[in-house]
Amino acid sequence: MRRGAEYVSGLRDGRVVFLHGEPVEDVTTHPGFAPAIGTIASLYDGMANRPDLVVDDERASYSAIWLTPLTPGDLLRRYRAHRYWAEGTFGLMGRTPDHVAALITAFAARPDIFDRGGIGFGERVSAFYRRARANDWHLAAALTPPQIVRSKPAHDQPEPFLYPGIVEERDDGIVVRGAQMIGTSAAIADWIFLSTFALQPGDEDYAISIVVPVATPGLRLYAREPYATERTTRFDSPLSSRFDESDSLVVLRDVFVPWEHVFVHRNPRLINAQFSESGAQILANHQTLIRFGVKMEFAAGLAIELADAHGMSDIPPVQAQLGGDIAAFVAALEALVSAAGTHAVQRGQLLIPSPKFVNAGISLQRRWVVDLMRSLRELAGGGFIAMPSGETFEAVETAEDVGRYYRSATLSAHDRVALLKAMWDLAGSEFAGRQLQFEMFSTSAQHIADRQVFRSFDWETGRAHVRRLLEGG
Predict the structure, then answer these.
(1) Mean pLDDT score of the chain, rounded to an integer?
(2) Distance in angstroms (rounded) separating the CA atoms of residues 68 and 110
(3) From CA 194, how far away is CA 205, in angstroms rounded?
């Protein structure tokens, strides 16, 4: 099993990450990346101490995030592993190592899909899966092309290879040029899985599915502004100081990819099939729902703690707000996740969570998160507006006043402000804005998610009821 120190040392590999126009010398010590790296490292260490989340076979032990689900027991074990990673980040890091691991695990279970592109492609996927599982690698994914001319396909952009595509083929591999978004966690991952969706005829040069080490020559990451800086404190920014997983533009400046790391090659039809037919999309989205459920539980905890602190928990209108706007969402999502596991379906040799319930959860998630954040803002009211900094509680000139006037019915001023700051970091800060945008678009746009619900829903049961009525039944 991988340890945190091994993960951290692996990030000192010469990777090229740009921030503010300058290369980052070492992501493991930079204040914008180090806190999230520390969080992941600690969870790697913790996983090794959870026997229930470690799979032992005849040759090796590995994390349950790489377990191929063949039985209901396997799905339950994966659920617990996803819960572990989500609870360790309060559901705030959407691309912990267990997310892309779900994709690769499903790919490897369906080598026949990749062999449609040529004999040997399926074995490449399986071989990489075995290596990734043995090393417990943290993989990021970059699946969205740059938003340049969105009405035109990849091959009809203003210039060639704005989207990632093959500019050269060699006996030992391909050379890829272009850029891809949104590389969440790419700056703090070991490898990047790069592919795309919905290609059209003529896009053959761009129909690729590859994996590359982050430190590959020619690969650059342009990271957005981090929310943690040298001045960020745990008290004033309790969430963004620890859980900012970073997002990057992934630029490939003629990156060489050996054949063993090429899963799909010039085959637009296989680009979508790798996700849909293999069950990979469902397995990864199941992780998304489990993680989001933990995040909603965390939000509910903040809400009830604040209501208790202000002596409002027994007021009927507040109970109605907490129940209807928060508790109902949390319970409904929990039910969807549970139903997805209970009604699992076979996809090849894989047993995957029910697409009907997973797709419904993904569609509702982006709507519920907006209402949930609004409810937290309404509950906190003006308390968000004038929160003092942590230093105010320590300075001689200010400690007495803030200690007297920021207290609540049950909490000291320090503890009440700490609670409000956690809520603000979740619902109102710049970090919170990114969290909201991530939840709304991290899996797909709303209309795409809704079409997936349409395709996976059982319409025939309703049709049968209608026919029974019309036929006089």
Answers:
(1) 93
(2) 11
(3) 14
Residue 292's nearest CA partner among 328, 330, 245 is 330
Cβ-in-10-Å burial (0-12, 13-18, 19+) of 316 comes to exposed
- The angle formed by the CA atoms of residues 438, 373 and 89, to the nearest 5 degrees, is 55
Strand partners, 178: 252
Describe the chain by its helix, strand, coil percentages, rounded to 5. Answer: 55, 15, 35
Other C-beta atoms closer than 10 Å to the C-beta of 63 total: 23
pLDDT at 473: 64
Ordered by where they begin, the domains of the chain are 4-66+111-275 (2.40.110.10), 278-460 (1.20.140.10)
Shortest CA distance to 180 belongs to which of 141, 212, 213? 141
What is the model's pTM? 0.94
Q: What span, in angstroms and rounded, lies between the C-alpha atoms of 62 and 51?
A: 10
Per DSSP bridges, beta strands 219-223 and 17-19 are parallel
Structure tokens at 32: 């914008």
* Contact in structure between 348 and 278 (CB atoms under 8 Å): yes
Cα first-last separation, the chain:
61
- Residues whose CB falls within 8 Å of the CB of residue 296, separated by 6 or more in sequence, listed in order: 91, 326, 329, 330, 333, 368, 372
DSSP annotation of 384: G
Unique residue bearing structure tokens 């050379």: 175
pLDDT in the model for residue 231: 77
pLDDT digits (tens, 9 = 90+) for 275-313: 999 999 999 999 999 999 999 999 999 999 999 999 999
